Amino acid sequence: MQTLKVELAERSYPIYIGEGLLANPQCFLPHVAGKQVAIVTNETVAPLYLAQLEQALAGRAVISVVLPDGEAHKNWETLQLIFDGLLKARHDRRTTIVALGGGVVGDMAGFAAACYQRGVDFIQVPTTLLSQVDSSVGGKTGINHPLGKNMVGAFYQPKAVVIDTASLRTLPARELSAGMAEVIKYGLICDEPFLGWLEASIEPLMGLDPQALTEAIARSCQAKADVVNADERETGVRATLNLGHTFGHAIETHMGYGVWLHGEAVGAGTAMALEMSMRLGWIDQAARDRGLRLLLRAGLPVVPPAAMGADDFLRHMAVDKKVLDGRMRLVLLRRLGEAVVTDDYPQETLRATLTADYAAIAAQLRGK
Amino acid sequence: MQTLKVELAERSYPIYIGEGLLANPQCFLPHVAGKQVAIVTNETVAPLYLAQLEQALAGRAVISVVLPDGEAHKNWETLQLIFDGLLKARHDRRTTIVALGGGVVGDMAGFAAACYQRGVDFIQVPTTLLSQVDSSVGGKTGINHPLGKNMVGAFYQPKAVVIDTASLRTLPARELSAGMAEVIKYGLICDEPFLGWLEASIEPLMGLDPQALTEAIARSCQAKADVVNADERETGVRATLNLGHTFGHAIETHMGYGVWLHGEAVGAGTAMALEMSMRLGWIDQAARDRGLRLLLRAGLPVVPPAAMGADDFLRHMAVDKKVLDGRMRLVLLRRLGEAVVTDDYPQETLRATLTADYAAIAAQLRGK
């Protein structure tokens, strides 16, 4: 087991990473202050892991709330199921909400914890690679609005994050790839040596080697924790974590939530950010191709949907949270291992990026 | 104009109190960081004060969202109207939400500000006495759930609070009395000299004398700010602000939201807290009667609804937030000017308090 500590003064918390942690009471009980616990999970994860977790929490008054699965349900109506469950079981302000599942469950359970009686304790048990390396660090919680993703939410920190690498064995291959998009991102934005390690380790990682996974997850969480430490409320450097996300959110919104996985959209969005960074002359073609090749080896799309034109992107990007007072800020790469957030670029470079022939680039790289 | 400063480190903010402040741009513009402003108000307040406030904000891109009036609308559906308005007008993370109205508008607009894109700036312009002395200080925001009041919300601080005493001229007499319940509360829980001042000033206050109002509001806000400063997240002394509220919430829940005004329920609830404190031997009958008499002179009910029995109270009080792990904590008076939060009392004293003959006590006091 590896343990990281996310340092946020009185809101600091540990991240435990290892095989079989779901069944280990010592990962949970020190972080449960009251007698009541509410496990929030979904109908896919519940049959796989709920009993194990309930076992680890034996001795507490545990209820479980099983949500429908999927991003399409990341809305107020589903959130309401959590509040209903808590209130019907008369959970008070000292209850602890445990999120068991992927990013959607974590975001909703975390937002419920942030809002229930104006804030109760919260433990994250992310069961997908994406949520393990992304949403379990940083305190972002929330739900979608018909007019935009994650438009309603809160910054709210968990008391602990428990990552059981064994839970990845039941994860569909497509979702494993989607999670790798975020892992690769950390290498690209702030850790060039990690990028090299990933290039050397991508096969064992995709083959679910537990040690490789623990290392990749720990380094990803550490990278994110370092950035979050430096900038908890995302006014500056934290925005670099959104590499590929502004383009990616536009893809998700345009295609409809759930058609592309979030990580898949981030993969294609990262390809676009690499392309634009090259077109600005910040990275050379070899660096762009190094990034693209790793994305391809992780099984990720590097080509945006054929159905989307430049205007589609621009329209959807304009409601993204990175728009401040109407100026569109993008996360781009100054070099591999260093990202910048900037709105200082020629509009025609953005348009050229949106209309570049990614299919041809990918075909060429696959051919090499 | 009086200016108080609520000290909360980097979240400190000023409270401006005086006649005609609604029309004063200098109370607002220094606290508006971006170009976009969203005024949230309701259908009762909008015709009275919206144009004036828009005038004070001239030069910014201002939208307004007009909600239906009343506690019955303090729910997710109404909150959604705020998010819809913000997203349709493409307000970004630097927008400022201005709450123009009473406590319901302030709670909802504040919660919307806490949640919109995980938190945007927020200015409160409370137009009722209750919201001026209570909800404008302390950062409590939220909405009701069918199973309980204020069960979903956030602690979220405004950038400034602007209190225009002139807005009380359009306030119904019943709501003025309701606001006085909270003013009197501050005297009872932490400021015996203020209680004496109120006994001497209750007639000018009820007659809307601007100077008396400014003084009463400023001292109330200061009292609350002092308590909030000491305990921002309500783990200890802050709970004393709930004097009369546990009983009062039970009345509101039982009668249905909006039948009794919140302040009226707090008035009767405070009478019950006085009664229980006397029955515990902590205050004498003269002290109880001093409190009751001031409540009566402010036009407040001191008799709970005839329809409510002890079991009704106990049932509704059990889901109140003051219940920790099943123990019912109450705010009571150790003496006039000093409140305590305790679950250390004989159950039969609580039951005797719930079944006391308040109508007879009130009749006797009115006869004196």
TrEMBL record, chains A, B:
Its Enzyme Commission number?
A: 4.2.3.4
Reactions catalysed: 7-phospho-2-dehydro-3-deoxy-D-arabino-heptonate = 3-dehydroquinate + phosphate
Q: Which InterPro entries match?
A: Dehydroquinate_synthase, DHQ_synth_AroB, DHQ_synth_fam, DHQS/DOIS_N, DHQS_C
Pathway per the UniProt entry: Metabolic intermediate biosynthesis; chorismate biosynthesis; chorismate from D-erythrose 4-phosphate and phosphoenolpyruvate: step 2/7
Q: Which UniProt keywords apply?
A: Amino-acid biosynthesis, Aromatic amino acid biosynthesis, Cobalt, Cytoplasm, Lyase, Metal-binding, NAD, Nucleotide-binding, Zinc
UniProt binding sites for NAD(+): 69-74, 103-107, 127-128, 140, 149
Residues that bind Zn(2+): 182, 245, 262
Compartment(s) where it occurs, according to its Swiss-Prot or TrEMBL record: Cytoplasm
MF annotations from Gene Ontology? 3-dehydroquinate synthase activity
Ranges for domain 3-dehydroquinate synthase N-terminal come to 65-177
Cofactor, how bound (note)? Binds 1 divalent metal cation per subunit. Can use either Co(2+) or Zn(2+).
The UniProt family comment states:
Belongs to the sugar phosphate cyclases superfamily. Dehydroquinate synthase family.
Which NCBIfam families does the record match to this protein? aroB
Checking PANTHER family in the record gives: 3-DEHYDROQUINATE SYNTHASE, 3-DEHYDROQUINATE SYNTHASE, CHLOROPLASTIC
The function of this protein is:
Catalyzes the conversion of 3-deoxy-D-arabino-heptulosonate 7-phosphate (DAHP) to dehydroquinate (DHQ).
Q: What is this protein called?
A: 3-dehydroquinate synthase
According to its UniProt entry, this protein's organism is: Pseudomonas typographi
